[in-house]
Amino acid sequence: MLSGVRTRSIDIVVPIFNEEACLQEFYARTARAISGLPYTFRILFVDDGSRDQSAALCAALQAQDPRVGLIRFSRNFGHQAALTAGLDAADADAVITLDGDLQHPPERIPDFIAAWEQGAEIVSGVRSKGAVSFWKRTSSAAFYRVLNAISKFDIVADSPDFRLFDARAVQAIRRLREQSRFLRGIYAWVGFRQVQLV
């Protein structure tokens, strides 16, 4: 790399709640996915009041890997609050959010980064049709059909919280401080260039 050229940074925000069974695998797969990529990474776990050994496992990962950070809630405040805390704590050129239960494959992280490098400011993962049950798919489709009918902004159905945000998008999201947050609606409202990856 040329002298004086700053390496771009990416924070990976991971809300967790009672995920002790899969945290080691999540960390190992994430570490492999980002290995060799030309960025400075931080993996920031947000423990949403877990009652198992999740926080202790994260603290052990933090002790062995300086890229790992940990935010601990005093009790369970919910997934939206954990995502909000992670976005507030992030300090990078881009932020990736994904759940620690391995429903979002860390192996897709390089694809999200590639879309960002091509100009996308928000990159959203979209579930494949077979990824969830028929009932979940049907009820979710109905919810988003009604929501989009009454909203001025299109919210993509089957789009979980596996996303990448450019720092400019993170700054815009931080300025919206509603108490009862629906982050997927906020992501649509802020108006940045978005792409979806299946």
Topology:
Blueprint: E1 9-16, H1 23-34, E2 40-47, H2 54-64, E3 68-72, H3 79-89, E4 94-97, H4 109-117, E5 122-125, H5 134-150, E6 163-166, H6 167-174, H7 183-189, E7 194-197
Parallel strand pairs: 1-2, 1-4, 2-3, 5-7
Antiparallel strand pairs: 4-6, 5-6
Average pLDDT, rounded to a whole number, is 86
Helix/strand order: EHEHEHEHEHEHHE
Order of strands across the widest beta sheet? 3-2-1-4-6-5-7
Outline the low-pLDDT stretches.
none
- Specify the CATH class: Alpha Beta
**CATH level 4 superfamily:** Spore Coat Polysaccharide Biosynthesis Protein SpsA, Chain A
Count of β-strands = 7
SS-derived structural category: alpha/beta
CATH level 3 topology: Spore Coat Polysaccharide Biosynthesis Protein SpsA, Chain A
Q: Let me know the largest β-sheet.
A: 7 strands, mixed
Instruction: Tell the overall outline.
Output: globular
Helix count, DSSP H or I runs of 4 or more residues: 7
Report on this model:
- This protein has 198 residues and is an alpha/beta fold.
- The protein has one domain: Spore Coat Polysaccharide Biosynthesis Protein SpsA, Chain A.
- It is 38% helix and 19% strand.
- It contains 7 helices and 7 strands, in the order E-H-E-H-E-H-E-H-E-H-E-H-H-E.
- Strands 3-2-1-4-6-5-7 form a 7-stranded mixed sheet, sandwiched between helices.
- Helix 2 links the parallel strand 2 and strand 3.
- The radius of gyration is 17 Å and the shape is globular.
